[in-house]
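Suppose you are handed only these lines of text.
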Amino acid sequence: MTLSIHLFPCLNDNYGLLVRDEASGRVATIDTPDADGILSALEQQGWGRLDLILNTHWHADHTGGNADLKARTGCEIVGPAEVGRVAPLDRIVGDGDVVMLGQTPLQVTATPGHTLGHVVYRSVADGEAFVGDTLFALGCGRLFEGTPQQMWASLQSLAAWPDATRVWCAHEYTAANARFALSQDDRPEMQAHAGAIFAARAQGEATVPTTIGVEKAFNPFLRAVDARDFATRRAAKDSFRG
Ligand code: ZN
Ligand code: FE
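From them, the structure of the protein bound to zinc ion can be written out as follows.
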């Protein structure tokens, strides 16, 4: 199984993500930040079809293009039940489910915290994971609906994946996250990692994907020792002005 992945900026700071199963030619979009942007990216790639929308959670910057893309391509829409409150949804998935993109199985993991129904998708064989607003490079999603305990448990399930797993986040927040990380962690290797992030952003380069191994080494939320420590760090980030 081989996946090709195309990442492109959408809206202010979202990433669009197109995923193609090379064996079958089937194409999925992870979330739908911008229907027009997604359709033109499909055309640019020469992929010529959209078979599947995989929603991670209900927020408008992740579901806003569902109706339009469904009308224009006839694709199937898969996501957690909460999406159905705001956008069309054909198939509800939850923890432990598997969604096939052509010949590639994608495992669904529930990651409540940012929203209560948030899910992430991962191809175990390819080592590629699509994590929405649960985990960011050097950060994590704000707790709009869930408790710190829920988000901590969600992040722990991602941290259990192999270190080489590539993590495709839904936003480019990494420079701001790096400023917060530096306020928590003064190791020279943290400073070097943040410096590389700032340099990449100064060149307009994406800092996504990251990997589980890199995030375990540097992400202040994965470096928390327990749920209480996580809650303290999340609260500090919410009021951080760096
Ligand atoms: Zn969100
Ligand atoms: Fe978002």
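What can we learn from it? The chain is about 35% helix and 25% strand. Helices lie at 35-45, 60-63, 66-73, 148-159, 174-184, 188-202, 212-218, 227-238.
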